[in-house]
Backbone:
DNA sequence: CAAAAAAGTGAGCAGTGCTCTCGTTATGAA
DNA sequence: TTCATAACGAGAGCACTGCTCACTTTTTTG
């Protein structure tokens, strides 16, 4: 993909190509923030860059491919946000809350990008395989806290309903960090990840309007609930 | 709105209007199922009905208004699904699971409508007030089970992290059925509602691809986890 | 230096939401 | 029953979209 060309540009042309690719992405990003994914217009991007609309197609084969590039970038940024918020030296409960807050923060300041990642998929769009690893970074940050708590022996045993190992994909468990997660622990991480995205989506899409009174406060409460379910002990 | 005109059509013209309005909605619904929300085209709907595209505007002021009508219809249908799945005579845990499954079933057979309700909001769209009551029916079905379990004295006490009452909107608690819900109970219902929508969204959007191995099974597990958190006892 | 590859251009196609004007038709009051 | 009014449908048209194609210009490379 385009990222290949960003590395080690040799000729002037390749350098220009990398730069322009970046500029297209930036312009698209700016437009995304103003109008939302469905209103992203290739022609408008071209206009902003002062080039013919057809020239964009030298860089991205289609509008969907541009969106895909933005999606991968988004997954990476939300992964960055989660990892940057995590201080491995801190206590598990603090780490957990920090990661949650970091993700929410990113979502609030990049709501259209967030919608691109976790909202309705665009037309007939299928997630490209290279997005999978980027997409996994955020939930992995959560898993790391659980893994460290487990290694430190401060992880609470799983609560009542247990998860049948057959429900979890074989590849998932071994993808998780630290000493092997069992099905219950894996399920708890999956649900925490789903909960984090779910509650942020609700806030962003207005479903909590007139339901909760303090979005940030309710979010923190949700983080604690989710962390406790995942086996962390909160002060 | 258009629904007003559906009731008690008197003159032939009013009857024709009501019928055509319904046909437009049906055609739009059909198109939605084939292509998704972003691809819903007013012109295509008009073509299917054999009328000029401009004539549609006599019935819906804009594409967004058509979508709004579909959204309200969707909220009502998912409310129907939840209520129809609920057998008030059954045990709380069975009722809970039945409602969850009913909602999932509806979502699987109406995935585009589901996306319309809980996915990325369309362009600059704001949820119309008349949608609020329809939107509340599904979570209310969940709340009813909790309320009945509470009345029967079989509701488990809230788990560790408690919810500050200040986080819940004042109107929410009194909207819930049965003897007054406190903040903790209300929060648990909100989170159950959010969880149900969240896990279905994940399944529908493919985020669980290669993460879980059995979508229906993991969904049931999630329902149990969520029900237990809400205070229900599962067999 | 010349051939080849890449980049940029502008016209054009088929489609979109939406507006406007224009005839037609049904309705409800005089 | 007459008739002004309001509702309706049609069609042209505007500004926009994604995308393709033939064409020229520029850069790289053998």
Residues:
């Amino acid at each position: 993909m385009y990222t290949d060309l960003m590395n080690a540009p040799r000729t002037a042309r390749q350098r220009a190509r990398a730069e322009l690719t970046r500029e297209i992405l930036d312009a698209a990003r700016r437009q995304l923030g103003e109008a939302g994914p469905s209103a992203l217009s290739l022609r408008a991007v071209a206009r902003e860059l002062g080039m013919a609309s057809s020239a964009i197609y030298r860089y991205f084969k289609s509008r969907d491919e541009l969106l895909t590039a933005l999606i991968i970038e988004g997954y990476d940024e939300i992964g960055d946000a989660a990892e940057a918020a995590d201080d491995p030296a801190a206590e598990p409960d603090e780490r957990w809350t920090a990661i949650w807050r970091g993700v929410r923060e990113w979502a609030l300041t990049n709501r259209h990008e967030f919608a691109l990642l976790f909202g309705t998929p665009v037309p007939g769009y299928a997630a490209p395989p290279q997005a999978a690893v980027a997409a996994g970074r955020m939930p992995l940050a959560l898993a790391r806290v659980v893994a460290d708590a487990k290694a430190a022996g401060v992880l609470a045993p799983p609560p009542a309903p247990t998860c049948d190992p057959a429900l979890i994909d074989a590849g998932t468990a071994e993808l998780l960090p630290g000493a092997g997660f069992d099905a219950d622990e894996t399920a708890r991480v999956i649900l925490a990840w789903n909960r984090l995205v779910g509650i942020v989506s609700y806030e962003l899409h207005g479903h909590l309007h007139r339901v909760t009174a303090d979005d940030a406060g309710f979010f923190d409460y949700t983080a604690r609930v989710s962390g406790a379910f995942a086996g962390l002990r909160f002060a």
In short: The mean pLDDT of chain B is 90. Residues 11-13, 41-44, 53-54, 57, 62-63 of chain B lie near DNA strand C (CB under 10 Å from a C1').
